[in-house]
Fold this sequence. Notes:
Number of helices of chain B: 14
Helix content of chain B: 40-55%
Number of strands of chain A: 11
Order of helices and strands of chain A: EEHHEEHEEHEHEHEEHHEH
Number of domains of chain B: 2
Oligomer: heterodimer
Number of strands of chain B: 9
CATH superfamily of the largest domain in chain B: 2-enoyl-CoA Hydratase, Chain A, domain 1
CATH superfamily of the largest domain in chain A: 2-enoyl-CoA Hydratase, Chain A, domain 1
CATH topology of the largest domain in chain A: 2-enoyl-CoA Hydratase, Chain A, domain 1
CATH topology of the largest domain in chain B: 2-enoyl-CoA Hydratase, Chain A, domain 1
CATH class of the largest domain in chain B: Alpha Beta
Shape of chain B: globular
CATH class of the largest domain in chain A: Alpha Beta
CATH architecture of the largest domain in chain A: Alpha-Beta Complex
Order of helices and strands of chain B: HHHHEEEHHEHHEHEEHHHEHHE
Number of helices of chain A: 9
Helix content of chain A: 25-40%
Largest sheet of chain A: 8 strands, mixed
Radius of gyration of chain A: 19 Å
CATH architecture of the largest domain in chain B: Alpha-Beta Complex
Amino acid sequence: MAWFLRKSKNISETTQREMPDGLWTKCPSCATIIYRKELEEHAFTCPKCEHHFRIGSNKYVDVLFDPGSFHEMDESVRSADPLEFTDTRPYKARLKEAYSRSGLPDAVTTGMGTIDGKVISFGCMNFGFIGGSMGSVVGEKFLRAAKRSLDQRVPFVFISASGGARMQEAALSLMQMAKTSAVLSELAENGIPYISILTDPTTGGVSASYAMLGDIIIGEPKALIGFAGPRVIEQTIRKKLPEGFQRSEFLLEHGFLDMVVHRKDLRKSLSKVLGMLGGGANA
Amino acid sequence: MASNITLDFEKPIVELEKKIAEMRALADTLDIQPQIEDLEGQVDELRADVYRNLTRWQRVQIARHPDRPYTLDYFTHCFTEFTELHGDRAFRDDPAIVGGLARLQGRPVMVVGHQKGRDTKSNLYRNFGMPQPDGYRKAFRLFQMAEKFKIPVICLLDTPGAFPGLEAEERGQAEAIAKNLLLMSSLRVPMIITIIGEGASGGALGIGIGDRILMLENAWYSVIAPESCSSILWRSWEYKEQAAEALKLTATDLVQQGIVDRIVPEPVGGAHRIPEEMFNTVQSVLVEELESLEKIPVEQLVQQRREKFYGMGVWTE
Lengths: 283, 317
């Protein structure tokens, strides 16, 4: 009955979105049923198998910042559909749906807050908003957040989660790679620390610009990180990719990450390195 | 240059040209010179007409024309003393990105560009113009050298994208491109970018930040190739024409979007039809642009370059 046996051990979890809100959650990796409170205590990771749930900016703020210290900024910056893009559906309709489904202004949230009393300019992507895709809004908010670091001489911390550039803004999306990298060159010249945290997934134009430009680059365990997506690579080379390919641990081994840090320890690690790198006046 | 390859929309032109050739063969025995001249006039008009009204997808096809001049053709025709410099000093020499020293009307410049192949053998060698990380790192090295010796940089973009392969990922394709973006944002010499054919995504942008962004009339530049866009958004490869329209990827579109500064006109019928004319145009445009950039103090130049990219994007607030 060979046809009856599954070839791969697990069914892959490629369509998994940001975590659902419910009292009980099933771990997509080990199928453990986890009570909401327990999940929160573990920084939205599975207490049994350490699977890192995809969480958005709001939950990262809770995980990282001193309670009540974070203030969101530039939340009124919105996509304008400059190309009047329509594929099977108009871009405007996709945006509208994304606003109502996620309750978010776009694929990134930015602002300022304190970690162990240290003032930080911060940005975090939301994979739940059109796949965390980078268009004009992400680029502009990134620029402003980085400029705040520059003006106030405080560290810049940015969490990436993105499938890449947003196709519906075409070349304008592509240029956001240049825009964000350009402002990072100003931070570099002025000795402002920039910490880049890569979460599942960080691919395409985001990985090939600011995500890979941190003075320190931290990956969450098992996060998919790469330029091309695994499916595209498999189609190109006509081979199955090895287990663990393009995961954080793979990148660490190949020298592209400084460290892989469990989400529970993220705050501690950040606080420690920022303390030593300087920048970051006490609040 | 007579081309062996005919694009769909060129068929009426080619048919008329065939007719003229047939008539020429008879011209010794028959007195049909006036008719021939008349037809020749018609061909020119038809060609001008067709090329005035190209759709976006048709321009993509011209940008990919196998006879179109490639980077090395420009290096050897628009410049003198082109001296190719190889290797990233780390792993290998990537033939999909070429670069080196050359003179532009006498002044030394650093030239870097994507290189495609013309036939199967050279395409395999050049990996169809799809760079590995090593190509971007070679470019990085050449940019740094240009800054060290205060030599302006000229980049020619022509790639279907950075290579999506296993080794490319292992050696950090994303990191290699990102590092170039960072360096090009702060390089203290004038930098001119020209999109000569295909400008596909991060693979093109990886050598694409500069003070002036020029684009050939029939080149395209976008976040993704129309076919791939079709396959992702329409879930089929069949909608490439629509995707090309939606992406607004031509030189005129990009000027309107505030991304490209100047369109470099091509000969009627595309760069491949009269390459010499194309080389002359590119050379004189580069000289003109470089002369104006060289007047700007370097601090101001770098800040202007950054501000230029800071201004890109459209949003409401």
